[in-house]
Amino acid sequence: TLAVQGTISKELAGRIPDAIDTVGYAFCFGTLLTSLKTWWLRRVASIAASRPLKGPVALADRLWGASIWAGIAFSARTSLNREMGFQLKSILAVGSLSSVVFGLACQTPLANVVQGVITAVSNPYATGEKIKCAGIGTCVVEDFGWYQSRLRTETNELVTMPNSMLSGRQVTNLSRRSSVKLSTTLRLRYEDLPKLEAAIAALREEVKNCSELKEMLNPGSTPEVFLVDYGEAAVEVQATIDIKPTPRAKEVKQQFLLVCAKVLRANGVQFQPLLARAK
User: Fold this and answer.
1) Three-state SS across the chain?
2) Angle at 115 between CA 111 and CA 116, to 5 degrees
């Protein structure tokens, strides 16, 4: 069709099938090399095929893959331009208007790819890590690619988002926290105010020495238990512990709350009933 319209010569049109073969061979060769590259990295790093690549290994995988495809693209271009005499610009250069349209069409995809490269180098998050993303909430990075990323939310929904859009949102990496604070406010009866000083001291000591909590406390941290306010219906005591990052955070907090209730009961301190608070 291009030859009939006079856009390209018949001789050049006859070479297009060979050019398509060259591009196909280049794609197959690039796919083979990237597969071998990933297999070798997994073997060296002792990472099973079912597990995602993380950290420096994932970064090396992406940068190495980009280098392979850049080399394949350069080789294919050289083959088309020099050996076959095939000028790619002969097809693409069909006027300034089409060039502008082509540039605008590539703007968003290129932005996604560039942002993927920037994210891979800066490494704010990696596959398998838990993040908190504005507009999405808490989720796990199932796959981070050059063009887009896939996120799994807490409700098991799979969100696919272009990298340029994801980079425009505030992202907090929950997997890289050095510690996690667990805090609760204990609302207690005013009648037990004389017993609070002893109860607070006992609570600090019990949390520090509790076998279920001791191994989870962040090294060097101490439990914080303080009287923080006199509410309308209850005395408010805030208890806080600093624990190591763990997927068992809810279980640890449950044990923490049970210890608080146990110590208060042992010291004769009771919680303020909800009905009394409402009055």
Assistant:
1) CCCCCCCCCHHHHHCHHHHHHHHHHHHHHHHHHHHHHHHHHHHHHCCCCCCCCCHHHHHHHHHHHHHHHHHHHHHHHHHHHHHCCCCCHHHHCCCHHHHHHHHHHHHHHHHHHHHHHHHHHHCCCCCCCEEEECCCEEEEEEEECCCEEEEEECCCCEEEEEHHHHHCCCEEEHHHCCCEEEEEEEEECHHHHHHHHHHHHHHHHHHHHCHHHHCCECCCCCCEEEEEEECCCCEEEEEEEEECCCCCHHHHHHHHHHHHHHHHHHCCCCECCHHHHHC
2) 115
C-alpha–C-alpha distance, residues 74 and 22, integer Å: 12
Q: What is the share, in percent, of the chain residues with pLDDT greater than 90?
A: 21
Identify whether 95 is part of a domain: no
| The residue type at 25 | Y
Q: What is the pLDDT of residues 161-201, one digit of tens each?
A: 888 788 788 888 888 888 888 999 999 999 999 999 999 99
Q: Which domain does 38 fall in, by range?
A: 1-86
Residues 185 and 153 in one domain: no
**Residue 240: inside a domain:** yes
